[in-house]
Design goal:
- By secondary structure, this protein is α+β, with helices and mostly antiparallel strands.
- It has one domain (about 5-60).
- The chain is about 50% helix and about 15% strand.
- The chain is built from 4 helices and 3 strands; from the N terminus they run E-H-H-E-E-H-H.
- The protein has helices at about 10-15, 20-30, 45-55, 55-60, and strands at about 5-10, 35, 40-45.
- The protein has a 3-stranded antiparallel β-sheet.
- It starts with 5 loop residues before the first strand and ends with a helix.
């Protein structure tokens, strides 16, 4: 998979092994970047990987 691959919400749920609501909550909390296209979100796989590694600015600020 390429690092600039774009995933749907369903694909992000499967990739992170979490629920759809958790993905939406992460976006609303500013912890995950997502682009809304129509009624659906799209995510860069790279951003999901950053979330897993704890490399987002919001996560670093929350852990202090």
């Amino acid at each position: 998979m390429a690092q600039d691959e774009v995933l749907t919400t369903t694909e992000a749920v499967k990739y992170l092994k979490t629920s759809r609501q958790t993905i939406i909550n992460l976006v609303k909390a500013g912890r995950l970047k997502g682009s809304k296209i129509g009624r659906n979100y799209r995510f860069l796989k790279e951003d999901l990987d950053k979330l897993i590694r704890g490399e987002t600015e919001e996560l670093k600020a929350a852990s202090r």
